[in-house]
From TrEMBL:
This is Endonuclease V. It comes from the Bacteria. Mg(2+) binds at D42, D110. Its EC number is 3.1.21.7.
């Protein structure tokens, strides 16, 4: 993907690029015959700084045990604008994924995919940029509406925007608030929900997201500790 797709000149150019790139999203399954590894990626922001911390965690798809991890710190190259976060977050995520010793068979992003105003959230952007199968799995709803869903684990309700199904509200644990799952790239919505549920056997969030979130928070704590002035003598 050309560099100008990651560093557009302004908000209008970024939005136009999202509309153009959205046409490249593959909405059906193009997955390996056997999924052996699944990765989680997450990004956090250092307070009062332009530093981003991205983590990529590679898990065994069968056991959900962590195989490899990578953490990257990078200065933000694009402003903080809702709906355009992928232009800030994609560069460090790509670097973190590149540091893993092997490419994952599937990536679950802590963010939106098609469930986005221009149908091109972080999961779509990452998928189109890398060619990897990706899933959007967000804690909060960005767009669309959905009907009430059942309380049991695995209950779903279609997330609809302008008459189009752009995702699913998915309850991963009984009676707990749902997650919002959407296509990223090369994964159908049904398959996306299957893998998010499979990766969330115990908690609301899939283990991919939990592991990546833990890593970025650890790194943020280290950044904060390094920035603190030394304690006065005698304390």
């Amino acid at each position: 993907m050309p560099n100008d797709f990651l560093s557009p000149a302004d908000q209008a150019a970024a939005e136009q690029q999202q509309r153009l790139l959205a046409a490249q999203v593959v909405r059906h399954d193009q997955l390996p015959t056997t999924i052996r590894t699944v990765a989680g990626v997450d990004v956090a922001y250092a307070q009062h700084s332009d530093q981003l911390v991205a983590a990529a965690v590679l898990l065994d798809a069968a056991t959900l045990e962590i195989r490899h991890t990578a953490v990257v710190r990078l200065g933000a190259a694009f402003p903080y604008i809702p709906g355009l976060f992928s232009f800030r977050e994609l560069p460090p995520i790509q670097q973190a994924l590149a540091q893993l010793p092997e490419a994952p068979d599937l990536v679950i992003c802590d963010g939106q995919g098609l469930a986005h105003p221009r149908r091109f959230g972080l999961a779509c952007h990452l998928g189109v940029a890398t060619g990897l199968p990706t899933i959007g799995c967000a804690k909060t709803r960005l767009v669309g509406s959905y009907h009430a869903l059942g309380h049991p684990r695995g209950s779903t309700a279609e997330l609809v925007l302008d008459g189009e199904v752009v995702g699913q509200a998915l309850r991963t644990q009984p009676g707990i608030n749902p997650l919002f799952v959407s296509i990223g790239h090369r994964v159908s919505l049904a398959t996306a929900c299957h893998w998010v549920l499979r990766c969330a056997p115990t908690y609301r969030q899939p283990e991919t997201t939990r592991a990546a979130d833990h890593l970025v928070n650890q790194e943020l704590h280290r950044l904060l500790a390094a920035a603190l002035p030394p304690a006065p003598d005698g304390m």
